[in-house]
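Try this one yourself first.
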């Protein structure tokens, strides 16, 4: 089972550009982003389940599971394709982002009049406003 973690904990100290999210960054021994090109390559064939694990500040683990997961290529702005929410203690906070495009502060692909990635200091599959962005 492969995992595709999002870089967490860097907050406003570190705001990567589109090119960094495209190629990947960070340390595999710590926090890292695998790279949207790599995630696309891995999810472009077959059926991939997605499980999202989230720890709160008290180190409690919550999760959400989806029946399938795919990231389209850069020409599609790494559009997020999600299957059915299958349950989990974290609830369904990602279905809202289904079919949205990936945005960074230097490449705004959301449909909002503001740059959500810049406003909320995090690249994500933003749509129009903050809904769920792991930081």
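Now uncover the answer:
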């Amino acid at each position: 089972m492969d995992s595709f973690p999002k870089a967490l904990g860097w907050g406003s100290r570190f705001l990567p550009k589109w090119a960094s999210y495209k190629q990947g960054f960070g340390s595999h021994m710590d926090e890292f982003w695998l790279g949207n090109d790599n995630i696309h390559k891995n999810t472009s064939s077959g059926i991939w389940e997605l499980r999202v694990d989230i720890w709160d500040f008290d180190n409690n683990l919550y999760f959400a599971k989806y029946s399938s997961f795919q990231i389209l290529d850069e020409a599609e702005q790494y559009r997020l394709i999600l299957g059915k929410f299958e349950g989990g203690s974290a609830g369904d906070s990602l279905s809202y982002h289904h079919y949205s495009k990936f945005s960074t502060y230097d490449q705004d692909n959301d449909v909002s009049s503001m740059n959500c990635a810049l406003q909320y200091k995090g690249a994500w599959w933003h749509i129009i406003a903050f809904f769920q962005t792991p930081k």
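Discussion: The beta strands are 25-26, 32-33, 50-55, 61-66, 69-71, 80-82, 85-87. The longest strand covers residues 50-55.
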